[in-house]
Design goal:
By secondary structure, the chain is α+β, with helices and mostly antiparallel strands. Helices cover 21% and strands 24% of the residues. It starts with 18 loop residues before the first strand and ends in a 24-residue tail after the last strand.
């Protein structure tokens, strides 16, 4: 069982431990493409990606970067927490051979009756520190070790104050 951080122990400004993936090789990209049934050749055919499409190399799948973000958040939320919302934008390409680092930082907190909501800014960096996938998330955390976030998760009712986006 993976323990969840308790809402009151999570300060604004807290940086989550980075999730590092890579270096990502052609086999990683091909396996992900097969699992997702994404057969666009820019992810596994070097000659096509560089010659036909004029790309610098094979591209790391956007859905793979999305999964890395979800993994970081889910691992941090633990078994008693709940990843509620995630949003991001693909702003730059990442290419085969790169090591990616997923980061997140707490920017807002909101205590509710049965749990707390934590808003995070997040992103995906390459090994040179360039951001390719900026985003945000909202995670529900338990108020105490004896009171997990209720399942099924019920988002805050309309009319309650919401974290600002």
């Amino acid at each position: 069982m993976k323990p969840s951080p308790l809402f009151d122990a999570v300060p604004i400004g807290l940086e989550l431990p980075m999730l590092e993936k890579g270096p990502l090789g052609p086999v990683h990209l091909m396996r992900w493409s097969a699992a997702m049934e994404n057969w666009h050749r820019i992810h596994y055919d070097h000659a096509f990606a560089t010659g036909h499409d004029g790309l610098p190399d094979l591209l790391i799948n956007g859905s793979l970067k999305q999964q890395f973000i979800a993994q970081l958040l889910r691992d941090w939320a633990g078994d008693a927490g709940w990843v509620w919302k995630v949003g991001f934008r693909f702003r730059a390409m990442n290419t085969v051979g790169q090591t990616l680092r997923v980061w997140a930082r707490v920017t807002e907190r909101q205590r509710l009756a049965n749990y707390g909501l934590v808003r995070l800014e997040l992103g995906v960096l390459d090994e040179d520190g360039r951001e390719s996938t900026p985003g945000w998330a909202e995670v529900a955390l338990p108020l105490s070790a004896d009171a997990p976030v209720p399942y099924p998760f019920t988002p805050p009712a309309t009319g309650q104050p919401q974290p600002q986006h």
